[in-house]
């Protein structure tokens, strides 16, 4: 294996390590145990938190932008920029982790800051923008995002609605004439790891509302509000986009992206293409994937499994490392994963694993090098 390389493609270990840190710590263990081995660190993400960092590791520069957080407070977000291409990460401007005091605001949280990030990308001259959605605090159908780009959401009296999804229950008209004209010359990509529609039992409110703090009554109100949004826009445009795959992503931010003409792609595929993964696999003797929890949701297309599937097709052995391992060896084997390591098993408890993630990843890297070297 010395003439080939080990490719380390870890996603974040939520609460204890970013994807960049996780890759660095595991790779450090491999290098210590096998100094002559070439190791490439390629942190991954699937469109949610950590996407900009993953693109930075792929050669993009980052640009700080002051924007509105999910409840209006000012925060500093980052764009990833390469040439005339930019990556906007919704979580940077409207993520759950930005809620003041961690207090959920399911009815009033907004995607306005994400629209400000997109506008900043246009200001930089970018004419291809990847909108990476995931981890959002809001269920506003992307109304905030569109507002930041010049749209107006009006009630029956012609007044502008306040931010948040609940207010859309009073929506009477949407004025899109003020949308930034540069959008017409911009290619938008909606990068999302979910294909949920906007409405219904698999929609934004029903599936993701509770994750953002909505109780049953609030979910019903948000469903009503998003239905009204979809109806008004369909009546005005003659096209109903609410059932399109990905419309329900990030509380309906995916719907807003589709309104702007975005083309949807799986978030992990966008990143893996940018990383040149297929080329890297040609020189790889082992690929290591992983994230904080490898579970059933991971198997439905999250970043580590996306990498594993490509490696498997290329005939490259795959190992997995996870904080918690909640899938069977047979399920992992279906994706080419030959062996898997659980930090929780190594540490003795989830709490110990989170407290000692750096050491545990390093030790796992040492073990991987000795086993596969």
Automatic annotation (TrEMBL):
GO terms for biological process: organic acid phosphorylation. The keyword Lipid biosynthesis does not apply. The lineage of its organism: Bacteria, Bacillati, Actinomycetota, Actinomycetes, Kitasatosporales. It comes from the Bacteria. Belongs to the glycerate kinase type-1 family. PANTHER family: GLYCERATE KINASE. Pfam families: Gly_kinase. GO terms for molecular function: glycerate kinase activity. This is Glycerate kinase. Keywords: Kinase, Transferase. The keyword Metal-binding does not apply. Gene3D superfamilies: Glycerate kinase, domain 1 (3.40.50.10350), Glycerate kinase, domain 2 (3.90.1510.10). Signal peptide: none annotated. InterPro entries: Glyc_kinase_flavodox-like_fold (IPR018193), Glycerate_kinase (IPR004381), Glycerate_kinase_RE-like (IPR018197), Glycerate_kinase_sf (IPR036129).
């Amino acid at each position: 294996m010395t003439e080939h390389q080990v490719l380390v493609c870890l996603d974040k270990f939520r609460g204890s390590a970013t994807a960049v840190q996780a890759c660095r710590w595991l790779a450090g263990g491999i290098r210590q145990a096998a100094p002559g081995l070439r190791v490439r660190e390629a942190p991954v993400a699937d469109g949610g938190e950590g996407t900009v960092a993953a693109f930075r590791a792929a050669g993009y520069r980052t640009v700080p932008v002051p924007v509105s957080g999910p409840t209006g407070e000012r925060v500093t977000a980052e764009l990833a920029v390469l040439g005339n291409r930019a990556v906007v990460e919704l979580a940077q401007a409207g993520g759950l982790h930005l809620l003041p005091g961690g207090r959920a605001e399911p009815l009033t949280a907004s995607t306005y800051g994400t629209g400000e990030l997109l506008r900043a990308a246009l200001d930089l001259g970018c004419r291809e923008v990847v909108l990476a959605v995931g981890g959002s605090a809001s269920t506003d159908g992307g109304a905030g995002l569109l507002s930041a780009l010049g749209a107006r959401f009006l009630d029956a009296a012609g007044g502008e609605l306040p931010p948040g999804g609940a207010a859309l229950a009073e929506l009477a008209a949407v004025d899109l004439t003020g949308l930034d004209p540069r959008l017409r010359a911009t290619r938008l990509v909606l990068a999302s790891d979910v294909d949920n529609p906007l409405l219904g039992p698999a929609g934004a409110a029903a599936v993701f509302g509770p994750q953002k703090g909505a109780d049953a009554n609030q979910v019903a109100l948000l469903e009503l509000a998003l239905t009204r949004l979809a109806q008004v826009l369909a009546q005005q445009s003659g096209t109903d986009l609410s059932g399109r795959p990905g419309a329900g992503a990030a509380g309906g931010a995916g719907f807003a992206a589709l309104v702007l003409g975005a083309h949807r792609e799986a978030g992990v595929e966008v990143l893996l293409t940018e990383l040149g993964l297929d080329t890297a696999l040609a020189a790889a003797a082992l690929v290591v994937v992983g994230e904080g929890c490898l579970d059933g949701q991971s198997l439905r297309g999250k970043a580590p499994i996306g990498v594993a599937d490509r490696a498997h097709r290329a005939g490259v052995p795959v190992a997995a490392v996870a904080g918690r391992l909640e899938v069977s060896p047979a399920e992992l084997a279906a994706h080419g994963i030959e062996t898997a390591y659980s930090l929780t098993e190594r540490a003795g408890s989830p709490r110990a694993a989170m407290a000692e993630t750096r050491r545990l990843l390093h030790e796992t890297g040492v073990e991987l090098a000795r086993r596969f070297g």
